[in-house]
Specification:
Elements (H helix, E strand, L loop, with lengths): L7 H8 L8 H5 L17 H16 L3 H13 L4 H10 L2 H7 L6 H9 L3 E3 L2 E2 L12 E4 L7 H7 L10 E4 L4 E4 L14 H8 L2
Antiparallel strand pairs: 1-2, 1-3, 3-5, 4-5
């Protein structure tokens, strides 16, 4: 499956959650899209529930199937609880950190900023959205890009204190990735244990 570029509300309604951020349509139509979306729901199988959770995680972080599988394999080989490590690896992606720092309003916008060479890691331009940021690295906005309206709009009024694993420095328009986040600090509503069960079959 290639990266989804269609209507975000359609996906949010499928999961019944605003996984891409505030959604006016979802608040009015909180049921799946399509002709039978609002009709009587059929019971979903255990496999269906697990698959749905994996799809939700993939859409939330904008990751393709192969990338997601590779991250899961890496998480399963690491020390710690596999599901939590998987979420930590997703959180450590460069596009996600750019989003968490408030440099971009959405993960899709963050991905675009990275791809278009507006973001630096330790002072060097990195244009790979899936780049895995290490603890202690500094993520900043390239000097030429600091005047971009999209970045200024995203940063205005953004609360940088809500994520304890990153530190923001307004003067230099850069943030430090302090450490991998604890599961309790990751705000995404993802039941990672279901994903582990799915891949363990």
């Amino acid at each position: 499956m290639a990266r989804y570029t269609g209507p975000k509300t359609k996906i949010a309604r499928k999961f019944g959650e605003a996984i891409f951020g505030p959604d006016k349509v979802l608040s009015k139509k909180n049921y799946p899209p399509g002709q039978h979306g609002n009709s009587r729901k059929r019971k979903t199988s255990e496999y269906g529930i697990q698959l749905r959770e994996k799809q939700k995680a993939k859409y939330t972080y904008g990751v393709l199937e192969k990338q997601f599988r590779n991250l899961f394999d890496k998480a399963s080989r690491s020390k710690g609880i596999t599901g939590e490590v998987l979420l930590q690896l997703l959180e450590a992606r460069l596009d996600n950190i750019v989003y968490r720092l408030g440099i971009a309003p959405t993960r899709a916008a963050a991905r675009q900023l990275v791809s278009h060479r507006h973001i630096t890691v330790d002072g060097k331009v990195v244009n790979i959205p899936s780049y895995s940021v290490k603890a202690g690295q500094i993520i900043g906005v390239r000097e030429k890009s600091k005047s971009l309206e999209v970045i200024a709009d995203a940063l205005s009024g953004f609360n940088h204190s809500k994520y304890p694993w990153i530190e923001w420095e307004q003067a230099s328009m850069s943030g430090k990735f302090l450490h991998l986040p604890e599961r309790a600090d990751i705000p995404e509503n993802i039941k990672e244990q279901l994903i582990v069960e799915l891949y363990s079959k």
